[in-house]
């Protein structure tokens, strides 16, 4: 059973566009929601994360929107650049005795020049 | 920021041999380290969780005798793939979470293992 559902699987935008990646979770014990960026042949890098006490967090061109009642969160990339082309993973973890994150299946983003 | 290193970054070995991969947290103490396996164009698959000074906890379906994990210190965990076979070829990634770092994990750069 997949506890974190991520969509879309792939996404293609033009430079300057605003790709949006969505994730939905089921476990209400989750209280930490990070996004990771992974380039081919590299390990994932923590991009931005949010906790459920806020509805939005922005860091540079990256914004997380969080909807606790709907159990959904999304990543928005403003003014996307070709260098943002990568695979993005959402994740969720909880403080209920374990911080082991559950990952989404990933979204392959391509930003055309 | 938190930096995690892995060594080697890539390794080629012959079938039947063993390979050791090191994971180090360079600027923080990691009470817990995680080992993942990733196939091309797929998500990360958690193999095991290791806590410093205790036995690793393996995920269902992961052979503990084949994938030996040792977490001897707060900055070092090792994964040894024993009697490697071609189907063990994959991208192995470790991550570290430190005490007080609630839910945060920092990933290493990964190790590409090819078994011939």
Could you characterize what this model shows?
The complex is a heterodimer of chains A (113) and B (116). With 113 residues, chain A is mainly β. In chain A, 0% of the residues lie in helices and 56% in strands. Chain B has 116 residues and is mostly beta strands. Helices cover 0% and strands 52% of the residues of chain B. Chain B has strands spanning 4-7, 10-13, 19-25, 32-38, 44-51, 57-58, 67-73, 76-81, 90-97, 106-107, 111-115. In chain B, strand 5 and strand 6 (57-58) form a beta hairpin. Chain B starts with a strand and ends with a strand. The A-B interface holds A 31-32, 34, 36, 41-46, 49, 89, 93-95, 99-101, 103-106, 108 and B 4, 6, 32, 34, 41-44, 46, 49, 91, 93, 95, 97, 102-110, 112.
Q: Could you give the count of β-strands of chain A?
A: 11
First-to-last CA distance of chain B: 37 Å
Helix content of chain A: under 10%
Shape of chain B: globular
**Helical/strand content category of chain A:** mainly beta
Oligomer description: heterodimer
Query: Which regions of chain B are unreliable across 5 or more consecutive residues at pLDDT < 50?
Result: none
Strand content of chain A: over 45%
**Shape assignment of chain A:** globular
Instruction: Identify the most extensive interface between protein chains.
Output: A-B, 23 and 24 residues
Instruction: List the uncertain runs of chain A.
Output: none
Share in helix of chain B: under 10%
Instruction: Give me the Rg of chain B, rounded.
Output: 13 Å
Indicate the mean pLDDT of chain B: 90
User: Which series of helices and strands of chain A comes N to C?
Assistant: EEEEEEEEEEE
């Amino acid at each position: 059973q997949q506890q974190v559902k991520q969509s879309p699987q792939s996404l293609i935008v033009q430079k300057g566009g605003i790709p949006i990646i969505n994730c939905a979770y089921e476990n209400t014990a989750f209280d930490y929601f990070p996004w990771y960026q992974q380039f081919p042949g590299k390990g994932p890098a923590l991009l931005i994360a949010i906790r459920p006490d806020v509805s939005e967090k922005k860091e540079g061109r990256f914004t997380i929107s969080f909807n606790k009642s709907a159990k959904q969160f999304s990543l928005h990339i403003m003014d996307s650049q070709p260098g943002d082309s990568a695979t993005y993973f959402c994740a969720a973890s909880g403080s209920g005795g374990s911080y082991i994150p559950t990952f989404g299946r990933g979204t392959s983003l391509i930003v055309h020049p | 920021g938190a930096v995690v290193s892995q060594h080697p970054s890539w390794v080629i070995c012959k079938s039947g041999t063993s390979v050791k991969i090191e994971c180090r947290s360079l600027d923080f103490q990691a009470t817990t380290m995680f080992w993942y396996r990733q196939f091309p164009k797929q998500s990360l698959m958690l193999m095991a969780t290791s806590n410093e000074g205790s036995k690793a906890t393996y995920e269902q379906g992961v052979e503990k005798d084949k994938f030996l994990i040792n977490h001897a210190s707060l900055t070092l965990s090792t994964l040894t793939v024993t009697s490697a076979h071609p189907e063990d070829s994959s991208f192995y990634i470790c991550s570290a979470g430190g005490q007080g770092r609630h839910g945060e994990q920092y990933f290493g750069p990964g190790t590409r293992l090819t078994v011939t």
